[in-house]
Amino acid sequence: MKPENLSWDDLRIFMHVARCQNLSRAGKQLKIDQSTVSRRINQLEYALGFSVFERSSSGLQLNDQGARLLAQVELMGNGFSGLLEQLSSGTNTVSGRVRVGTMEGLASLYLTQQVPKLQLLHPNVTLELVTSTHQLQVTRREADIFLGFFEPSGQGFHTERVGQFELHLYGSEEYLLAHDTPSRETLANHLFVGYIEELVQIEAVKWLDELIAAPKLVFHSNSMLAQMFAASAGAGLVMLPSFAHAERFGLRKIPLNGPKVTRDLWLSVHQDLRYVPRIKTMLEHLSRLFRNDELFSIG
Question: What's the whole-model pTM score?
């Protein structure tokens, strides 16, 4: 290893390549050509004395040494970004982009409606919403902040439970006229739309299972939005979170006796990003948003 030859620029390029898993895409992000990216990675590996990627026809994958290096380089990058923001925050103006990763339904049906409030309160902070069916890798900067229906695992996270929401059964007027309004005792006689079992990556979304065993599913999708619109068209009954405000899409909430179906909402961020001004501002904004909304009242 030749530590005197290590360059922060090379490490920064390595971080982009690791995230993109492709030299060309990393070059586009960095606004340099692919050959320069390749040369700088080779230069870094020479200085380190070991390779950091496994190269294949499908792209570049971090090897074990590369993964350990990336974790350290990300700490350096986060610290440097935080320093720059603190140095430039003498005007008390918080600015920059914050990427929030969350589930499709929460993003599309709830958070998008809150953007004007954020713009009003923090006009120089830009929200980027990334939707996913699994926990985004906050440590790899797929997202700065993660909102999920489960408490994330792993070390180095600051996590807080910011709310709890209820789930309800919904049906279209067309469906209910044709099949009558169900009760908990007659659910087995009805048709449902729900998730594709083998594609479910988050156990928390198996909320229909808590209402009825072996529902008669006539439509499957890994998209909650697709399920909702299929139910709105009359395909069957659907289980949806209260924050979806499904009534605006022509669905009617069906009151059922028995225990409520609920899920917790968790807000998490990597410890090294927690006090970066723009991220701290977004964390506080989101925490207040959910704690002050009765739809997420913690039981």
Answer: 0.71
